[in-house]
Amino acid sequence: MTDRTHYDAIVVGSGISGGWAAKELTERGLKTLVLEAGGPVDPNTDYVEHVQPWEMPYRGRGDRKALERDHPIQRGCYACDELGHKFFVKDHENPYTTPEDAPFKWFRGRQVGGRSIMWGRQVYRWSDLDFAANAKDGHGNDWPIRYKDIAPWYTHVERFIGVSGATEGLSQLPDGDFLPPMGMTCVESDARPKILKAFNGERVMTIGRVAILTKQHNGRLPCHYCGTCEKGCVTHSYFNSLAATLPAARRTGNLTLRPNSVVAEVLYDSKRNRARGVRIVDATTMQEHEYTARIVFLCASTIESVRLLLNSGGPRFPDGLANSSGTLGRYVMDHHYGSGAGGVYPGFTDRKTFGRRPNGIYIARFRNVTKEHPDFLRGYGMQGGSGRNGWGRGGGMPGYGPAFKQSLIDDLGAWHLSASGWGETLPHPDNRVTLDPVVKDKWGIPAARIDVRWRENEKAMEKDMQTAMAEMLDAAGCADIRTHESNNPPGHCIHEMGGARMSKTADAGVVNGWNQAWDVKNLFITDGACMASTACQNPSITYMAITARAVAHAVSALNRGEL
Amino acid sequence: MHRRDLLRAFGAATALALIPEDAIAAWTRLAAGERPGRELGRTQLELIGAIADTLLPRTDSPSATDVRVPAFVEMIVADNFSDVDRAAFIAGLGLIDDAAKRIGNADFVALSPETREQIIASIESGDRRSEPGRTYWRLKDLIIHGYFTSESVMKTVLKVEVMPGRFDGDVLMPARAAAAGAQHND
Lengths: 563, 186
Prior knowledge:
The complex is a heterodimer. By secondary structure, chain A is an alpha/beta fold. Chain A is built from twelve helices and 16 strands.
């Protein structure tokens, strides 16, 4: 810890976006303070990916009582389990509210590295189909940037983090600077050409593009296929802040990282019309401190950054800092996801897999790409995979005795192939985050009140995900095809976006095309809050690219004396 | 990458050192033979053991009771089940024994292996959603999970590798005759 209180730059948050802001700012020579609300993580003692089921009292099924007590909301995320719960916030310390008829799941990780510790690692570039979508159909506001503006930054990010994937030459899902792809299973390899042929090349099933190394890269080891990345990785094979961006920032000698620092307010200097710094509450001592800087980057995660701005109002900005447009907190989105289909894949019973691939297959968006769908705007990508259940099928399988037992050891059962959609959500002004007038968190900061709802377009798309996937399974020759309909509420996909959206003009959004607050020129918001639409691709790589791009602009402007 | 690089990266830390403290405490109690909630009596544990060994008897691989499956079942029933589910489960165990008495004129544990199989076949052919089927299938799921996640079975029967080091999506399986005891579940 340091006694210093003034820096060149302050970054709020150390997750995917904050780590990138820290790396890029420090590498450009700025003395940078990174404030993280949670505590430190030591990979040597905190990562638990190699703990085997027999080493867990509940063999992975979780300590229900403890989870219900400490993580009643967080436990809805697959990664918040018997061991992984340590990377999720305790709900009673971090309350939020919703209207009774609009549930929202807010899954959160407060620790150095944030949610990059247990993120899903899927990374897909956006295309102009996405950046031009709002302008085309009139929902939301037009993005001030296009693919050409961000493409070099995607490359910059991919070269640093390492992304494995296969090139496909699709305009709606641009190829990147990829490491060798992970392998498909025999069933996936068999299905891909059948689906391509059945749908005239429109539906492309590719291996997931994933921020996991398939060869040594920038000093990090390749994946060893243990299969549980969400619990950490001692070989640093998947990208997270802890393994890559924060160490890079530290190597410059310009980084100061302050864990257990809950940022309560962005301090505003009305005379200079600039952000002066931040006020924090030390999470362990409950003492307040102030830190000042020439520029401030908010990378606290979508809803946290919005909440922080809403809580930083004053005479000049009574409705929240940098909110002269009145859009702060509005147009909050998440991907709607989970509807699709699965089936039994015939044959290949003499084939199995070796290693636990922490990745699946991806079917690139095919709706509203070249022709308009009659039932909904925009589109969805699909994610899934294939496998054999092995002994896992035994609990529901009739039988007993030596033959039954041996069949669970020798015979892996039929192959299954399934996938579900990840769909674009239309921006809507009433999907909104405000401050709860009553509820506060453990540190006395007003809680977020979240009112986000799925609307007709999302519901229509969920129906089509089921039909379309069933068609693809049928084309691949599957039997016993069953569709599944998602009932996940907003937030469940953990792709929260919007609330401080990017805009072409100051009256339409919170930040400009460089993520710079229209109202406060030395304040930058580069996490998911800046997103003006969701596309259907997993958003993290876009946050990283946008953050790196914003830093380059901010430092240039700072050096020109403009900030 | 060489396996030794992986092992070096993994470090000397034992897996147990990585488990949260409260989990270690619970596991230590269990390993010491202390039953977590004392929710199940000796008779019920013996019934669970008898059913488990009928499903998964000792062959050239361990039986369910060899790898202490009943202790795992009790752990889940005591700590993981809700109060309502636990009460229903305990009552359901009694109904399984009632079925044994009807068919075999004795408690399940006192019956011959053949009669035990006959009772299990009878329950499995019935409705899964009504008792005793409901409790039986819930128990069977726990027995299978407890058996195949036990240290002995994972290490010596399934031969699961913690760090396989590579992924291959298309591996030819050996013929079944040669496959007994071979690794498949990696």
